[in-house]
Amino acid sequence: MAEGRRRGFWEVMNNIDRRIIFVVLAVCVTIPLIVSTGGEIKPTAPVIRAHASVEALETGDYMMISIDFDATSAPELMPMLRAVLRQAFEKDVKIIMLGHIAIGLPLGHMALEQIAAEYDKEYGVDYVDLGYRPGYIAVIIAMGREIEDIFASDYQGTPLREMPVTENIHSYDDIDLLFGFEHGAVIDYWVRYTQARFDQRMTFGTTAVMAPDAYPYLQSGQIEGLVGGLKGAAEYETLVGHPGLGTRGMPAQQWAHLLVIGFIVLGNLGHYFTRKSGKRAT
Amino acid sequence: MGSTTMLIGTWIAGFLTLAIFSFLYKDNPVYKLAEHIYVGVSAGYWLIYVAFFDVYPMLIQGFQNETGIEKWILLVPGALGLIMLSRWFPKTAWLSRWPIAFTVGIGAGLGITANIQGYVMPQLQATLLPVTGWNIVSLNNVILTVGVITTILYFYFSKPHKGALGWMARVGIVFIMVSFGASFGYTLMARISLLIGRLYFLLSDLLHVID
User: pTM for the complete prediction?
Assistant: First the structure.
């Protein structure tokens, strides 16, 4: 009798309607978002190194920002992009933005304009948005020779030589740091072509999915720092001292992870007990 | 006007977010509508952006403004681009192999050197690390080296996985499983982050429940 009840319980647990799981997960994420504004976040070494790479820049130095993501990765990469822009503008670093995903560029541009306005920065003087050119590798390699060959003008059509911010910029020799925001393979192109050929200093912010693929580059010293996923964004926001969506999302992330761990344990126990009971019945 | 546009945009975004979420219950026409809008808008944006910000200024205006060889060399990418469109017509579809061959050739040529110079060699250097005594760094270096070698041996299929080779392959699969676990954990974090992003949008921008 007790055996049957136990088997029944685990069979029910094994066959929970997935929609119930979705609802529980939604509740688990929504409540912390409403009631908590984020707890204490301890930055990890890769993020500290990423922050230090920007911190090492001096007033008037140039940072190239590559927007290599689109709306599908915005919740992870936009918070870290905003944090990096705040840090850079705080240090009076000049920003040159471009991208390899055309549909993501407006997101980068929105963040650039928003943060530039916070620091009273002027377009064409303190920052510029070059836009998008198709070709990934061809674009990356050609910029090592002359950026103007690929981007003769910015996204509005203003020639590079007519803007103070880019009038003396020619190649990677004039770029002090590249900070790429990646949700795909473009990080490989940046590292394998720009770092290897032109010895460009570079740091990356990636989606959590991409982070395991990027760690070997960090371990080999090819990149200086790595900010992975929303957790990395929260750590970067902590270092910059300006909490945003990354910090705000951490309690929800934490509860969601605990829930999933609970479901994994329940699922495995259910599988174990139902299989065991099934064997006994036969 | 600006705030009205923002308001309308926010409501459209909210509707589309809920429409996509509705798939979690079951497939339905509202989800299909949102999915088709996403695909259509993305494709349209790419087309317009590439046509007006790249093809027109770099190819057409470039041809008008350049002189000498710089002008005429633009005919090559222009012609290759047009030939690519021959795929639409079955009788001339074979022509599209030329621009494809051109692209593949460039990609392969650049890729070989880049992968050796920018991936294989630096990663080899980063794997062959010294053991400097009984400390945590040395232990880490040993684990790294053992992990790389045993994982490579797991994929060595020219001999049966028996004896020492079998034992090392079993160690290798442990490292592979750890790697899969890390990737799964990160993937889970990514998906939850996306959910957080959309729920934050619904709660703040749309419903103003939170700041």
Answer: 0.91
